[in-house]
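A protein record pairs a chain with a discrete description of its three-dimensional fold. The following entry can be read in just this way:
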Amino acid sequence: MRKFDFKNIRFGKVNLDTLDDKTLMLNLYLTQLITLIVGIVIILIQRNHVLSLFNLHAGWQILIWGVLFAAAVLGLDLLVSRWVPKEVSDDGGVNEMIFGKRAFWHIALISLIVACCEELLFRGAIQHAWGPYWTSILFAAIHIRYLQHWLMTGMVFSISYGLGWIYLHTGTLWTPIVAHFLIDLTMGCILRYSKEEEAQ
């Protein structure tokens, strides 16, 4: 049996020009699977019941708070993109590569998977132990592609804090999942379909 050689694992900056679509998608789905597993393990260590985080006691408040928060974030993003130079909001082209050539159903699937996995880890597991402030600092830090611009880092922190607040307010993970999904879906569609309009 052949052993895996951990010494040959190298970390470094990835050149997006050499990254093909298959590798990008594999990395995206693999990181989300790891996020999901880590989130579930932390929740189990905390002796919480995973399913209790997904209660529906808040009823319509889940959709109301999720949609209102997503609309506020998207409105703020629209203002920022209108008044701030493009270099300040540049993520190095990662989002463009992820969403730029996808079909609508694939954008929706990516948005749903990311929303569920990240909210389970950050709001369901980490926020339970650290609270919304420190969870939001960690959330901003893992979105490393934005750390070179203080405005984007601040926006990611604020969005995360808001997601944590609506989770605490409604008592269910469905609320930040709805908001996160709508934000990612809308931004993904803007990236995807604005290219078609520019081409015409």
About this structure: The first helix runs from residue 21 to 45. The radius of gyration is 18 Å. The chain has a mean pLDDT of 88.
